[in-house]
Specification:
Chain A: Its main location: endoplasmic reticulum. The complex is a heterodimer of chains A (500) and B (77). Chain A is an all-alpha fold and 500 residues long. Chain A contains 17 helices and 2 strands. The chains are: A mainly alpha (500), B mainly alpha (77).
């Protein structure tokens, strides 16, 4: 096939434009006398002709252009045109330098152990991962970057939308002076209760140094400033009206003036409890990574190995609280704290449960499409009943308020055990009951330990013995409830399993 | 009856109806679950009495939800 090269137009100067000169794998051109340079790229086994390929682990200079010789130039020298089809498919493109982490001047990464799969910049990662992976912390918009307070950017999981300077500037300028003052007081608020991890361990206290950009249009703000005391008075009245009223007042206040996070603690005086306790953004529950999922699954099935059960707190960077309180301390998202509840595992295990039910029915040739819908509804019914009972119980014993999604998340973890039971029942028939009992027990222990801090009184005042007994009884009830619940979910397939 | 989401909803609605019906003056005071007494005693009783009061306040929306449910059940069966 090298004897009749493709016919080229001799008048054409530029080789690239000639359609006949395009590379044809079945008829590769032979421009040079050196036969070694003629290669069929589909059969290239060694790349000795080309420049030595850059190993991915070698290049650690993300900001310098790639130093090694690039294949396209060598292609050109060898007479191959620049057409993309001429580049052999097994030559990798030069890796693009990853985006530097603008959010993190100190390159601080909370979960930065070697096994961490969290989406932070990691020079050991392959550069060929998807671009979104290394861009998990998108750079700040440049207009607002100069106004960034120092300690707000030390957490790499912050979103640009939550940044105070990226909001309409009129709001931040209006609330700037007291905002700065009060926010200092909240950040350096002493640890009133014996909480081991009030502040994220790697974030030191830094007084917020928010500069105050002066904007010309402050005249309409004067009117608002005059009205604010009345608004505040009204909300404070709502706060003093009662327990739930305070939360509603705090919510309203924060929704009306998102920049005034510092006000809330001062005015409503609830200390650490000022964050939203009715609703938290669902986004919070889905920030998980592989490490968290694996550890959590292990925790659910074998809760004996955990050392600390308290949830860690940190600065709420990710705008997870429904009221948008920036800078207030709240619980860390699941990605950073293995004790935090998430909704990913319950959702996935619930879907797995429904599918496995269908599978079990199918093994007996009793499958109908209606079965999936029925067991889906049944699972949801059991879950909602349990959530309602637990919510009622928490209210009756005057426990600290817990968001709805938290309770749903904790209750949804039981589907993991249910799936495990069904799986083991399918594989080995005799394992069915033991695994069922074991997973219900494990779930009970897990729930008991997780809820201890919510239910039992935190301070060691002299509480009535009856009250304490009631709380302990409720805690126990939480776990004992698991047995009938597991039974309801699983046991009417006992007959099916027996027929294997 | 199959335990499903609709079943739970109906049961919950009936339960809420039952809690909303309890009349404060005619019944609760006789049994000793009035507000003053619960405030004195405190604890779970206070919470329950407050809960019942909340249900009494919500009587109108409960009526609306009942009507809608009745209509839907008429149509769907």
């Amino acid at each position: 096939m090298y004897n009749n090269p493709p016919q080229k137009d001799p008048n054409r100067q530029h080789r690239n434009r000639d359609p006949n000169s395009f590379y044809n794998p079945s008829n590769p051109p032979n421009y040079l006398s050196n036969p070694r340079n003629v290669q069929d790229p589909t059969q290239v086994s060694d790349r000795s002709n080309f420049a030595p390929q850059p190993k991915l682990q070698d290049s650690f200079s993300p900001y310098a252009p790639h130093q090694t010789a690039s294949p396209p130039s060598s292609n050109y020298q060898n007479g191959f045109s620049q057409h993309s089809s001429q580049v052999p498919s097994n030559i990798s493109h030069p890796p693009t330098p990853p985006v530097p982490n603008f959010y993190n001047p100190n390159h601080y990464q909370p979960s930065s152990d070697a096994n961490s799969n969290s989406f932070s910049f990691n020079p050991h990662q392959s550069f060929h991962s998807s671009p979104t992976r290394s861009l998990q912390n998108p750079p700040l918009p440049t207009t607002a970057s100069t106004f960034a307070p120092l300690n707000m950017s030390s957490h790499p999981s912050s979103h640009p939308s939550s940044h105070p300077s990226s909001r309409p500037s009129s709001q931040s300028s209006f609330l700037q002076p007291p905002h700065q003052q009060y926010q200092q007081s909240t950040v350096t608020e002493p640890n009133t209760h014996s909480m081991p991890n009030l502040i994220h361990p790697n974030q030191p206290h830094q007084p917020q140094q928010t500069p105050q950009p002066q904007f010309p249009n402050q005249v309409p703000m004067q009117a608002m400033q005059n009205a604010v005391p009345y608004m505040l008075a009204g909300m404070q009245q709502m706060a003093t009206a009662g327990g739930p009223g305070a939360n509603i007042g705090a919510q309203l206040f924060q929704s009306l003036a998102p920049g005034a996070a510092g006000y809330t603690n001062q005015l409503f005086g609830q200390g650490q409890e000022s964050f939203n306790s009715f609703m938290r953004m669902p986004k919070y529950y889905f920030t998980v990574n592989h490490k968290y999922v694996l550890k959590k699954l292990l925790l659910i099935l074998a809760p004996f190995r955990n050392r600390t059960w308290g949830r860690q707190r940190g600065i709420d960077q990710g705008h997870f609280e429904g009221s948008g309180s920036d800078g207030a301390t709240s619980y860390l998202p699941p990605r950073d704290d293995v004790n935090a509840p998430d909704l990913y595992i319950p959702l996935m295990s619930f879907i797995t449960y429904v599918l496995m039910v269908g599978f079990v029915f199918g093994m007996q040739d009793k499958f109908k499409a209606e079965i999936l819908a029925r067991y889906f509804s049944k699972g949801l019914a059991v879950l909602s009943l349990e959530v309602l009972i637990i919510k009622l119980g928490l209210y009756l014993i005057n426990a600290r308020p817990s968001p709805w999604l938290d309770v749903i998340a904790y209750r949804g973890y039981k589907f993991v055990g249910v799936v495990l039971t069904m799986l083991s029942g399918i594989l080995v028939r005799q394992l069915y009951y033991p695994v069922l009992l074991y997973s219900a027990t494990a779930m009970g222990i897990f729930l008991m330990r997780s809820h201890r801090r919510i239910i039992l009184p935190r301070d060691t005042e002299a509480h009535q013995a009856q009250d304490l007994a009631r709380r302990n009884a409720f805690l126990l009830f939480l776990s004992v409830l698991q047995y009938p619940v597991y039974g309801v979910l699983v046991l009417d397939m006992r007959s099916l399993n027996a027929m294997q | 009856m199959m335990l499903g989401l609709g079943t739970v909803f109906k049961a919950l609605l009936l339960f809420v109806n039952a809690m909303a019906i309890l009349h404060e003056e005619r019944f609760l005071k006789r049994v000793g679950w009035s507000e003053q007494e619960a405030a004195i005693e405190g604890g779970v009783k206070l919470q329950i009495v407050n809960l019942l009061k909340a249900f009494r306040v919500l009587r109108l929306p409960i009526v609306v939800v009942n009507s809608i449910t009745v209509l839907v059940l008429l149509v769907v069966g």
